[in-house]
Amino acid sequence: MNQEQLINVLLEPRITEKSTMIGDKQKQFVFKVTKQASKPEIKRAVELMFEVEVESVQVCNVKGKHKVFGQRPGRRAGWKKAYVKLKPGFDIDYMEAQ
Predict the structure, then answer these.
(1) Does the residue 98 lie in any domain?
(2) CATH number of the domain where residue 56 is located
(3) Could you give the 3-state DSSP secondary structure of residue 96?
(4) Which of 7, 63, 66, 83 is the most buried (most CB within 10 A)?
(5) Which residues form the domain of 53?
(6) Residue 69: what pLDDT?
(7) Looking at the domain assignment, is residue 95 inside a domain?
(8) DSSP 3-state assignment of 97?
(9) pTM, entire model
């Protein structure tokens, strides 16, 4: 997979209270990724974009919630979440990456 395709694997970082605690304690960072992304692709994308070394990647498929839009029942789209653990000595700063 070339660099242009790897850049499109990561959609956005998920910055929540839970992900911030995990990042501080275990050097794990959470990203929203494309549904087709595999663990090796996610690892290479993070290493390319943030210039860090990745120790492991865990993925989780998040199901869309059931909602009511007006009077019609519907469902939000599902998405894929990746937990990326970095090797000791590395860190991701979202402000410097831009």
Answers:
(1) no
(2) 3.30.70.330
(3) helix
(4) 83
(5) 3-88
(6) 87
(7) no
(8) helix
(9) 0.87
Tell whether 7 is covered by a domain: yes
**Has residue 66 been placed in a domain?**
yes
DSSP-assigned letters across all residues of 3-63: HHHHHTTEEEE---HHHHHHHHHH-EEEEEE-TT--HHHHHHHHHHHH---EEEEEEEEEP
Say which amino acid occupies 26.
Q
By mean pLDDT, which of 50-54, 60-64, 71-75, 94-98 is the weakest?
94-98
The 10s digit of each residue's pLDDT in 24-64 is 889 899 999 999 999 999 999 999 999 999 999 999 999 99
Using the predicted structure, report yes or no on whether residue 23 has a pLDDT greater than 90.
no
CA nearest 39: which of 60, 19, 22, 21? Answer: 60
Which pLDDT score is estimated for 2?
82
What is the DSSP secondary-structure string of 68-83?
EETTEEEEPPPEEEEE
